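Exercise 7.
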Amino acid sequence: MSGAEGPDRPPRRVAIAGFGAIGYAVAAAIDRGIPGYRLAAVAARDLGAAARRMGVFVHPAPTVPIEGLEPLADLVIECAPAAQMRAVVEPFVRAGKTAIVLSAGALLSHFDLVDIARLHGGQIVIPTGALIGLDAVTAAAEGQIRTVRMITRKPVRGLLGAPYLVEHRIDIAGIAEPLKVFDGTARAAAVGFPANLNVAVALSLAGIGPDRTMLEIWADPALERNVHRIEVEADSARFSMTIENIPSENPRTGRITPLSVIAWPRKQTAALRVGT
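Solution. The predicted structure, written as tokens, is:
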């Protein structure tokens, strides 16, 4: 599904599920104008509040429940809580449409959605998000990747309340120096830190899978940014990458995440596309 706009092709209708920091930023960018796309509908927990926020848009879109999105749009951008991911994505891929999924960790528990998309001609897209270098990992995966390790360091406020910390009674609220709170697979991290580690799942799906991609998570009281370092050993290359992401108004999400989502539709219609 190319999304290219021609003289006789109307813009693709975009639905956004979730109207928080990411959803609002993406909706506002589409409202300002992305060639070949228009904002068709928004779903949010509080539809009234979403409608009021929509009031400043040049082309306000209707606010509807999640189940009302699919008939109104050609693709959906899922920016909702992870527990709602399936309800957002399944109707679109069953209809042969595209779903851009930010709750990549939740996808591991609902991976049959990939089979449903394949069967019906739909597509699930996981955007780059807060992680650089996915093109390099994807290319290396065409050969043989031996190991992938990711070390994530986050400000304490970005990890507070994570299920893994609660379950293991790890109190990070008052720590005075960095503390490693997790060391394991990307799959386990997705369960224990569902609001924090979608980047690790995206990395694993680009490379050697969630059971072989290893992850360390550190809580660091001195940090103001989310820091990710990736180390890859492959038969084609050895490489490492580090990115420091500035948090958005939601401390669990970096400002670059919505920008990576906005970049996707622009890339579909661009006369020049850079990167795999």
